[in-house]
């Protein structure tokens, strides 16, 4: 509930701080005294848009702060979700800077306006004749019925299922679209796959073939140079082997004279062994080398095939061709198995639909069960409020379509006059009747669910004295379960409050300001007397005021 409201530099308010308590609180004041300013400031701290025009002094910032007790609102999980520190006594602050920019804080943590708007629905519910238009909104009508039917958890499960169903249907449509596109490309992809697959490519094949072909194309030069290399190595007079043999022989004769000579001799021996090995390989290569025209043509044809495939697929290596082969394989498999995947997705959809249908049926039955008692309670309350002939016709019909809160279509019709035909609320009910219907609905809801603080903004406008007593009694009854604040011009309602606040204007240094104060018992008598007979009230008015208060 709202425990304190503090306002600085807003509209006609310099600085104001007022404490609120549980039960029924009354706010009264002359027309134009500033009751709408208070609601404006409260709306500001709960997330309404604002600009620098709301500042009383344009050189200073405006600060509106609300302290609310939220221990009974089950908001701990919400605070965790939006990463806010939870406090049973939470402070919400809004600042409007002279530049027009604004900042908002919850327990001193900066927040955006969307979080404030989410919070307001759990904290404070403001109702005026304008807000009663929501009575004609189907979502609001459903919310009333579902609150009485205790459908919250079922609808939450239904909404999660509906999201899952929409996602599955989107996935199915994407699969079918992909299948159509893949089918159109399937034959061509299969041709490309077979063409690549039949080639039996190896990842390093191109480099090996290019090397072999290069060797065959230069066979004459290779033969000449190999023969000359052998001649240089094995010539009996000047060959490298002969020279190394002589060098080895010379060094071996002195190797025993010192370690250094021994090392030199060993190194020459190693060189000789390596040269002998090289000569042996040169002889093998020279004997084996021969030009085979058929082999050269075969290598050339194979390379040309590889080059053509690379050009066709816009790549430069066999590695990339093999990657394309794998991609084509996946596409072909996807097409060939797509029917199975689609069937599986359709089965998932049917399963989710069945669960949703079961939930929707349970939601619908719970609604149908509470509608008779809701109609009866509304008609009884409205009869007390001077609408003796008020009748409701509320029906829910289970449809095939999935809606956001079930599969029901709702008819919420009203007739104010005996023998009158039923029609939509906004078409057949006046503003005053809508206000009383809203009050009756909130009264019924307060007995069944935990409601936030309710502020009634002159919804009693245009009703008679006797009806105003009934309205006041209903508000009193509601205030036993919740905090109720009402702005009123009727003394009968003002007298029923647990606390009575007065909004008033005063001129200070030729400047008009708005203030709010809690009245003591004597001040309250005077205020109600003024409400009864004006500023020049009589002793009779005082007596009447005391009677109302008693």
From TrEMBL:
Classification via Gene3D superfamilies: P-loop containing nucleotide triphosphate hydrolases
PANTHER family according to UniProt: DNA REPAIR PROTEIN RECN (PTHR11059)
Record's protein name: DNA repair protein RecN
Family designation: Belongs to the RecN family.
Keyword Coiled coil assigned: yes
UniProt key word DNA damage: yes
Record's function text: May be involved in recombinational repair of damaged DNA.
SUPFAM superfamilies named among the record's database cross-references: P-loop containing nucleoside triphosphate hydrolases (SSF52540)
Lineage of the species this protein comes from: Bacteria, Pseudomonadati, Bacteroidota, Flavobacteriia, Flavobacteriales
Domain Rad50/SbcC-type AAA: residue ranges: 4-219
Coiled coil regions in record: 155-229, 268-369
Highest taxon, organism lineage: Bacteria
Keywords, comma-separated and alphabetical: ATP-binding, Coiled coil, DNA damage, DNA repair, Nucleotide-binding
InterPro entries with a match to the protein in the record: DNA_recomb/repair_RecN, P-loop_NTPase, Rad50/SbcC_AAA
